[in-house]
Amino acid sequence: MIECIELVKRYGKTQAVDHLNLHVDAGEIHGFVGPNGAGKTTAMRILATLCAPTAGDARVDGVSAVHQPQQARARVGYMPDFFGVYDNLKAWEYLDFYAGCVGMDAKARRKRIDALLDLTALSGKREAYVDQLSRGMKQRLCLARAMLHDPKLLILDEPASGMDPVARAQMRDILREIARMGKTVLISSHILPELSEVCTSMTVLQRGKKAFSGTMTELEKRLHGAPLVIRLTQTPDEELARRAAQRLSELLGSAPAMEEDVWRIETQEDVQRDAQALRMLMELGVPVCGFAREHATLEQAFMEVTGAYEAQSHL
Ligand SMILES: Nc1ncnc2c1ncn2[C@@H]1O[C@H](COP(=O)(O)OP(=O)(O)OP(=O)(O)O)[C@@H](O)[C@H]1O
Ligand SMILES: [Mg+2]
Prior knowledge:
This protein is of the alpha/beta class. It folds into 2 domains: 2-221, Rossmann fold; 228-293, Alpha-Beta Plaits (2-Layer Sandwich). The protein contains 11 helices and 14 strands. The protein has helices at residues 40-47, 69-75, 91-101, 106-119, 135-146, 165-180, 192-198, 216-221, 238-252, 271-284, 298-313, and strands at 2-11, 14-24, 29-33, 55-60, 63-64, 76-79, 153-157, 184-188, 201-206, 209-215, 228-232, 257-259, 262-265, 288-293. The protein has a 6-stranded mixed sheet, sandwiched between helices. It has a 4-stranded antiparallel sheet with strand order 2-1-4-5, covered by helices on one side. Strand 9 and strand 10 form a beta hairpin. Helix 3 (91-101) packs across helix 4 (106-119). The radius of gyration is 25 Å and the shape is elongated. It starts with a strand and ends with a helix. Adenosine-5'-triphosphate is lined by residues 11, 14, 16, 34, 36-42.
């Protein structure tokens, strides 16, 4: 559904997007993360036909946003990171105005507007003036606006920014509902744990380049795997610790890093072998009270990916 091919955008000396290649399948909720200035907004604006790239191509549903912007625009709904709403319009009038702009006939409008107000949990605010809506409500109204022409792809630039946890959870539910409707969603955010709950895949951008692209599980496993962490009720005596370390090394192929009552082993996850290791520790009389694979949080994985990338680019 989304394809970027050697996409480049330069602003003077700034390389906002740097030979970006991206592929997102239809039906994905794809996260776009990266530090400030990574090029997320720029790439999204190019896909939404709002900005022309310096080189390369960006395609939506097989249609080039660069060479066939009209056709591409029909396939994309875009919600910018900063938006204005008109003061003296009611919620439904605001949507009605934009429905007119996208050429929807009067009959179809009402039905569509009611469906979108319902989807974005704004039915109760139909008659409210838009300037009196809360920030979260305004964001949802803009989402409804982006969906008026029934696009296949929704591009949402930081839709959760400035929202309280309840509003964010509500946005998450709405995005899931949108995915169930068969849409593809590209969503940027700094709030990484937020993305991990709602996204099916993601791309990490770093200085306009792709540092990672894949499923959430792949990202979490990417660099670190998941170390085995063994917690003890107390620090065992030296002799017991030495014997346990030796047996663990033999069994798991890697020596544990022992810090008093927490032992950590960097090995590939293997359920059978892990179970064997636990049995062995019990038999030796090691006072184990915790035995688990510690999966990195999305935040950690993100740091790893961008950090590793920085290191690579300095070679
Ligand atoms: N209109 C512009 N003119 C000049 N430089 C720009 C313009 N728009 C973006 N840039 C530069 O391009 C780079 C990428 O900016 P972009 O807004 O795409 O990043 P971002 O990932 O969306 O950042 P943020 O997380 O802060 O929203 C930055 O260095 C920015 O200063
Ligand atoms: Mg941005």
